[in-house]
Amino acid sequence: MSDKPVVFSGIQPSGTLHIGNYYGAVRRWAAEQGHNFNIFCLVDMHAITVPQDPAELREKTLETAAILLAAGIDPQRSALFVQSDVGEHAQLAWLLNGIASMGQLQRMTQYKEKSAERREQSTVGLFTYPLLMAADILLYRTNFVPVGADQKQHVELTRDLAQRFNATFGETFVLPEPTIPALGARIMGLDDPTKKMSKSGGRSGHAVGVLDSADAIKSAIMSAQTDSGSEISIDRDRPGVSNLLSIYIAATGTTREAAEQHFAGKGYGTLKREVVDALVAELAPLQARYAELRASPDHLRALLTRSATAIRPIAQQTYADAKRAMGLGLGSPGGQE
Ligand code: ATP
Ligand code: LTN
Questions:
Q1: Do residues 36 and 68 touch, judged by C-beta distance below 8 A?
Q2: Does residue 43 line the site of ligand 2, with CB under 6 A?
Q3: In terms of residue numbers, what domain contains 104?
Q4: Which of 87, 250, 309, 331 would be 184's cystine partner, CB 3.0–4.6 Å?
């Protein structure tokens, strides 16, 4: 392994990527590849914590891989692989089950939100989800985890677990840090700007997908909820307009001050039209590259398999270290351990 900092992040191959995923995570993964040892993971085992259709999940796994490549993930500089292809993720997650407390997991906001819908019917996997995520991160001795704001709590839990493990069983894991973007860390739903934009949002008019046509983008943005009043600025009390303006800033790369000045005295209709134009300009080239990549599924499969094979030895080594530290298995011949 090189001595560059290790960056690891994951994305669920369920549903189609939306602009929240793109601005909160994926765009940064692509932009920062040059400086680090990068590992990006399609976390299909996380996806099955809510019901999935098997054929669709497999299809979405290839689709998500193609979107990440189209967004600029460069297989020469970054590993891109499918979580379930590296068995050590599930194995290490189980060891972490032995050190995490119920209370720690019960405090996770994502669990509270997602389990509220299905209550007793929600899966056990939804509860232990953060342990699989911690395993993903710790296996590769990760330094930095670029994620949207919603995942910060999970990365902090990972850090706490690593610390507890090291203190109890000896130095084994590297402590990771979350990196959250200054802009686009939390894009909100267009139909309800008090809730984060989500793949599982389901409803039409909730999200803009990165593969959406210009017409679909237009219809989602033009019908986005706004607020009373007419001023266009980022303001906690006016979440609808703030969200549209944040999307505009993320898509055009302008500053908040410049954007607020640009829209001074203009109406919500102008803001919406300019958001549509900015998104279409950003997403059209990505969509063209996606179409080319998606046309060669065998090529995508080969690339994902090659990456998994290349990085698996790192995961195997860390897992072996953790297992030995906890006293599992028979140890080495001669009985020293
Ligand atoms: P779901 O809502 O179905 O759980 P998701 O949309 O949160 O899915 P993930 O695959 O879990 O998608 O997340 C991939 C990355 O996108 C993570 O780093 C996450 O923090 C980021 N992300 C997700 N939603 C947003 C959002 N609305 N704004 C900014 N970043 C986001
Ligand atoms: N839980 C994350 C996806 C994820 C992840 C990871 C992100 C799974 N494993 C490891 C960073 C590092 C989410 O976005 N919902």
A1: no
A2: yes
A3: 6-180+297-325
A4: 250
Q: Show which residues are catalytic.
A: 114, 196, 199
328 Cα: distance to centroid of ligand 1 (angstroms): 35
Report the domain count for the chain.
2
The SS3 assignment for 336 reads coil
Q: Verify that 278 and 315 share a domain, yes or no.
A: no
Residue nearest to atom 14 of ligand 1 (CA): 11
Domain shared by 125 and 11, yes or no: yes
At 237, the pLDDT band (50, 70, 90 cuts) reads: confident
Distance 149 CA to ligand 2 centre (A): 11
Q: Which residues contact 324 (CB under 8 A, 6 or more apart)?
A: 331, 337
- Tell me: the pLDDT tens digits for 238-282? 899 999 999 999 999 999 999 999 999 999 999 999 999 999 999
Pocket test for ligand 1, best of 14, 18, 21 (most atoms within 8 A of CB): 21
Compute the distance between CA of residue 324 and CA of residue 30 in angstroms, rounded to an integer.
Answer: 36
Q: What confidence tens digit (pLDDT) does each residue in 1-11 have?
A: 678 999 999 99
Tokens of 127: 């509860």
Cβ of 10 closer than 6 Å to ligand 2, yes or no, is yes
Q: Looking at residue 303, which CATH number applies to its domain?
A: 3.40.50.620
One domain, residues 123 and 14: yes
Quick: pLDDT tens for 153-204: 999 999 999 999 999 999 999 999 999 988 778 899 999 999 999 987 667 7
| 20, 166: one domain | yes
DSSP structure string for 7-73: EEEEE--SS--BHHHIIIIIHHHHHTGGGSEEEEEE-HHHHTTS---HHHHHHHHHHHHHHHHHTT-
Task: Find the helix or strand (DSSP H, E) in which 144 lies.
Answer: strand 144-146
Judged by phi (left if over 0) then psi (alpha if -120 to 50, else beta), residue 329 lies in left
Check which CATH number belongs to the domain holding 236 and give it: 1.10.240.10
- Assess whether 123 and 17 both reside in one domain: yes
